[in-house]
Design a protein that fits this description.
214 residues, alpha+beta, five-stranded mixed β-barrel, 6 strands, extended
């Protein structure tokens, strides 16, 4: 029994390390409560149900406290339109309201590009906040909106084909590569760290077993 303990410890540590690696590699979850079955469903919903559909780049954002709005806080996200599919034009700067306090919320990062499907801001009874006082457009976690590198270039190619829009210059170039490269680096560093932990643990267990045998 004494000789089985190091092996059991090794197995437990390997499982733990692999769990850590998988969590690091998973990245943040997408706030997509609808669960579109494919690109066609996401595109159809966007063009049918939303006021503005575009490929945008986030250029700035700020939060308006609930004490100012009189109800829930709002995050105002400023975006520049890179490709316009519906309800906007290329180069237009849009201000999109989101709610950081909602359970199903969209989190934007300044810099990267997004596929945006935004609704006209509705006033009155929506959580007692007249969003139209602060922005013309509103986005939430159940909309088709998604990070550009999440839906991928094939999605935008299909969207262009459906709407007749021409690809923006350098739209699929390395402009978004730094963010993706950074994310990939984090994932690979996490994987390498997990592998190193397994190797070091295996070596220590092997030495312990050799010491017991002697």
């Amino acid at each position: 029994m004494r000789h089985c303990r190091p092996a059991a410890l090794l197995i437990a540590l390997i499982v733990f390390a692999l769990g850590v690696v998988s969590m690091i590699g998973a990245g943040p979850a997408s706030a997509d409560c609808v669960g579109y079955k494919d690109d066609q469903a996401r595109i159809a919903s966007a063009l049918r149900d939303y006021a503005v559909v575009a490929k945008v780049q986030v250029i700035d954002q700020k939060t308006i406290d609930g004490a100012v709005t009189g109800s829930m806080p709002l995050t105002m996200v400023d975006v520049e339109v890179k490709e316009a599919y519906h309800g906007t034009r290329v180069g237009e700067i849009l201000s999109i309201a989101t709610s950081p306090s909602m359970a199903e919320r969209r989190t934007f990062t300044t810099g990267p590009e997004y596929f945006l499907a935004a609704s006209n801001a509705q006033g009155g009874k929506y959580l007692d906040t007249d969003i139209s006082r602060w922005a013309r457009l509103y986005d939430h976690g159940c909309s088709p909106t998604a990070a550009a590198d999440e839906v991928g270039p094939e999605f935008f190619a299909e969207l262009r084909a459906k709407t007749g829009v021409t690809a923006a210059p350098s739209s699929e170039t390395s402009a978004a590569d730094p963010g993706r490269s950074s994310d990939a680096t984090v994932v690979w560093l996490g994987a390498a760290g997990g592998a190193a932990l397994v190797i070091v643990t295996a070596a220590l267990v092997w030495r312990a077993r050799r010491a017991e045998e002697q």
